C-alpha cells in the first residue's frame, strides 16, 4: 500500500503540468555483473511528458546461479524513478532525477544527473553519475553496522530502430564508499546491460 501511494504521488506530480504525453514505453533488460557473476532481468514501464517530466516503475529479479551468498536477493523488488529534462540546445540535455528503490532490506535513494547528446535523430549518447544512499544499515567487513552506499557512473548508447522499438547498451562502474566489497573482493565492479524498449502508445 505504501509503495502504491508513493508511485501515485510521483505520477500525480508529473500530471500536475500540462497533459501533453509522449509514448508509454515497456522495456526489458538483461544485465550481467562482473563482481558477483549475477544475471539481472528487469521489466520497466515508463511515461514521458513534453513538459519535461519523466517517470517509471520497474521490478528486478536476480539469477544467482554462482551461489552469490553476499548478493542481496532482489526478487519482487520495486523501483520508482522520476527526472526532469533541461534542454541546453537542440542536441544537449541535462536530466536531474531521483530513484527510490524498495526491497525487503529497506529503502535506497539514488539522486543523479545525466547528460545526453543527440548525435542524430535516431542515435543518442549519454553519461550519468548517481549516488546510491541506503536508509538502512548492514554489517561491514569490520563488523560494524554501516551504510553500504555506492557511487556509480553509467554510459549509454541508444538507437531508435523505428516507431515501435528502441535498442540501448548501458555500461556501469560501481564503487563502494565504505568498508564493503563486491563478490570479486574489490570495492568496484562493472555491469553491462542490453535494453530493448517497446513503445506501447504513440506520441500524443
Structure description:
This protein starts with a helix and ends in a 5-residue tail after the last strand. 7% of the residues lie in helices and 59% in strands. It has one helix spanning 2-15, and strands at 21-33, 38-49, 53-63, 77-84, 86-87, 92-102, 107-118, 123-134, 138-139, 145-146, 150-160, 165-176, 188-199. The chain has a ten-stranded antiparallel β-barrel with strand order 1-2-3-4-6-7-8-11-12-13. The chain has a two-stranded antiparallel ribbon with strand order 9-10. The chain has one domain (2-199): monomeric porin ompg (Porin, Beta Barrel), CATH 2.40.160. It is mostly beta strands and 204 residues long. Residues 1-23 form the signal peptide. One of its GO terms (molecular function) is porin activity.
Q: What is the fold's blueprint, element by element?
A:
Elements: H1 2-15, E1 21-33, E2 38-49, E3 53-63, E4 77-84, E5 86-87, E6 92-102, E7 107-118, E8 123-134, E9 138-139, E10 145-146, E11 150-160, E12 165-176, E13 188-199
List keywords for this structure.
membrane; porin activity; about 5% helix; two-stranded antiparallel ribbon; about 200 residues; Porin; mainly beta; ten-stranded antiparallel beta barrel; Oligogalacturonate-sp_porin; N-acetylneuraminic acid channel protein
